[in-house]
Amino acid sequence: MPRERNYSEAQGGRSYHPDKRSIRHSTDPTHSLFYPLEYSASGASIPSRIHTLVFGFYLVRNLVPVFVKPIGMPSKDLQFVHFPDTLRNWPWPRHLNPHFAVCKEESEAWLETFGAFSPKAQKAFNLCDFNLLASLVYSDLSKDGCRVGCDLMNLFFLIDEHFDLVDTHGARSRADIVMDALRNPQIPRRDGEWVGGEVTRQFWLNAMHISTPTFQRRFIDEFQIYLDSMVRKAQDRTEDHNRSIDEYFEVRRVTIGVKAAVIVNEIEMNIPEAVMQNEHIATLIAAATDMILIANDVYSYNVEQARGDDRHNLVAIVMRTENLNLVDTLDWISSLHDNLVEKFLDAFHQVPHYNDPELNRQVAEFADGLGNWVRGYDAWSFESERYFGKRGREVQATRVVQLLPKVL
């Protein structure tokens, strides 16, 4: 059952009104939000390339917490990144699945049997601790469910890293391999095929043992949408395409993979599609997706800007399109996130009730799981070494890091 949380207290807190200075340039951040009644886009794979990870681990050793420059300082004087406390009123606490340790050990060992990365890259991959991410965002699942979640997170990031190495044609070929493995898991993969096919096949065979047919159909549909978006991302990279803020959100909501990932919370449920398409549940999924991608882009920006790899980062896109410095950009994004929090909590209290008690229980647990996803992703960002190395807890407390110099 969902854990007891004081949702009314969070809603009853001080209402947030964005500082007009942060959005004085033409675009209100809320204009980037549009949630249709039937939200069907799936989220997008969250990471950047493995060599970016290795580079990042080298750089973050020198992160120095200090006080940020005041708003309004010229961009040339900005030397520090101050992360907004976006979840200051979020009612979901951090909660770790009690099966984390054993699932991490099993899933990590399983992935390494495929030899998908070089030893150096595998070490960097492990430091990101995607099993911790799974155990934070799937905190209420059984041991078997937690293991499926760990395997899925490892698969997501394997796909993301490997798709970054190929052009549009190569990405489409690999996407087709993954979908064939999902639709035909009983058929062994061909010798010499890209390793992602066999990783997917084994993941899905394990997931099928504990999942409902309803979940299986929904997951396969969402994973197809996710992979199609990854092919589109490869095309953008190949064609050197820069997107606007609205275009970025449209693509990133899918490439981050959240929609396909969050439905693992219903792995043993039978929630009808009509219920999932309810406008309030759709808003919960959409708002959670945007909050997660904002967290990813804000926390990864420092390393990405240092190595010139920030084209697909919201911070860099807002700075470019709105002509803002870094401080005002983060203020702009914080205002956007505050609106998302309000939108999520409003929708959470309007999730419909049904005559079927079991369906009501499943819907309540799924909605609760979406709130936990937002908290879990944020917690993982500081507890793993993905973004801040061994200084994650320190950065979480101070919310400040030194802006890294660009490496030519």
Relevant terms:
408 residues, mainly alpha, Farnesyl Diphosphate Synthase
What are the SSEs and their pairings?
Elements: H1 7-11, H2 50-60, E1 80-82, H3 100-112, H4 119-128, H5 130-137, H6 143-163, H7 168-183, H8 196-208, H9 213-239, H10 245-255, H11 258-262, H12 273-276, H13 279-306, H14 314-322, H15 326-348, H16 357-383, H17 392-398, E2 400-402
Antiparallel strand pairs: 1-2
Helix pairs in contact: 2-4, 3-5, 3-6, 5-6, 5-16, 6-8, 7-8, 7-9, 9-10, 13-15, 13-16, 14-15
How is this structure best described in words?
This protein has one domain (52-402): Orthogonal Bundle (Farnesyl Diphosphate Synthase), CATH 1.10.600. By secondary structure, it is an all-alpha fold. It has a two-stranded antiparallel sheet with strand order 1-2. The protein contains 17 helices and 2 strands. It comes from Mycena sanguinolenta. One of its GO terms (molecular function) is metal ion binding. Keywords: Lyase, Magnesium, Metal-binding. Belongs to the terpene synthase family. Residues 1-25 are annotated as: Disordered.
